[in-house]
UniProtKB/TrEMBL annotation:
Pfam family, one: DUF2520
Record-given protein name: Putative short-subunit dehydrogenase-like oxidoreductase (DUF2520 family)
Coiled-coil portions: none
UniProt-listed InterPro entries: 6-PGluconate_DH-like_C_sf, DUF2520, NAD(P)-bd_dom_sf, OxRdtase/DH_put_Rossmann_dom, TM1727-like_C_sf
Limits of the DUF2520 domain: 142-283
Protein's organism: Gordonia humi
Ranges of residues in domain Putative oxidoreductase/dehydrogenase Rossmann-like: 3-124
Length: 303
């Protein structure tokens, strides 16, 4: 009794062995939980489970649910409701059931809760690239947590913290907004950077053509455009996260209407969609910084 009590070690079942479920299975096993079973149906997921969850037996959904104390549902958002209904047919009262979907809270798990299980939404707010790097990144990530009551909340928060991650409570009624904000910041960033790289490739290639734009740095896998953009984008991201909107630099922040007009003209010659994206985002920056009427008129989104 002089030693601190160790957290309870749970029998864990993973549904299913996709990128998220596999990473969470690895992470839970690393902190001592017994990840004993996993649902894997496609050849890719079966191979992934064999390589990264070799301690877990591939079993059918009913067997995984009935034999597990903690059930992690890691299926696409669109499949979650149907999978939850199947789980409800086999769940044991007192089991802990969590899902990893960002857009859903606990309402989608209501059939399971009615059977006496403890339910929670535990969404890891990170992107998964299908490697062991995903598991390592979990420890530095945040999880959006939603639970039905204090018991579910305490269990979900403890599980997330046990992984080394940071739990952040999200109200059931705010899950869609939470998910939209993450998608806007992360997924739409992908589109933004892709457009910027495309424009830079055109600038590097110049009137002579695309040969220079296709070149890579020292024969590596990253192109000149990506190499040029990476330090600037990385610094901008770090600055805005630390300083907020005051970190903005560039022509919109300076009120340089002529420069922005030239940008729009040049980008439209590369692709009209890139110019339109620039106009929308620069317009948001102008509104956030109380830009003058000439800048706002220039950046007005036209039909």
């Amino acid at each position: 009794m002089e030693s601190p009590m160790a957290p309870a070690r749970l029998r864990v079942g993973i549904i299913s062995a996709g990128r998220v479920g596999t990473a969470l299975g690895e992470a839970l096993a690393a902190v001592g939980h017994r990840v004993e079973s996993v649902v894997a149906t496609s050849p890719v997921s079966i191979t992934r489970a064999a390589e990264r969850l070799p301690f877990a037996q591939v079993r059918g959904l009913a067997d995984v649910v009935a034999s597990s104390q903690l059930i992690v549902i890691a299926v696409p958002d669109t499949e979650l409701a149907a999978v939850a209904a199947r789980i409800a047919e086999h769940v044991v009262p007192g089991s802990i059931v969590v899902h990893t979907a960002g857009a859903h809270g606990i309402g989608v798990l209501e059939p399971i809760a009615r059977r006496g299980a403890i339910v929670a939404a535990t969404h890891p707010a990170m992107t998964f690239v299908d490697s062991t790097d995903d598991t390592a990144r979990l420890a530095s990530s945040c999880f959006g947590v939603t639970a039905a009551d204090e018991i579910g909340d305490a269990i979900a928060m403890a599980l997330v913290m046990e992984l080394g991650a940071t739990p952040i409570r999200i109200a059931e009624t705010s899950r869609a907004l939470y998910h939209a904000a993450l998608a806007h910041g992360a997924n739409n960033l992908n589109a933004l950077i892709t457009d910027a790289v495309t424009a830079l490739q055109a600038a590097i290639g110049g009137p002579a053509g695309d040969a220079a734009a296709a070149a890579t740095v020292d024969g590596g896998g990253i192109g000149l455009a990506e190499q040029l953009l990476a330090p600037l984008v990385t610094a901008s991201l770090e600055n805005v996260l630390a300083q907020g909107r005051s970190a903005l630099t560039g022509p919109v922040a300076r009120g340089d209407v002529d420069a922005v007009a030239r940008h729009l003209d040049e980008l439209s010659q590369v692709h009209e969609g890139i110019a339109r994206g620039y106009r929308v985002l620069a317009g948001r920056a102008a509104a956030q910084h109380d830009a003058g009427p000439d800048m706002r008129a220039l950046l007005e989104v036209r039909p």
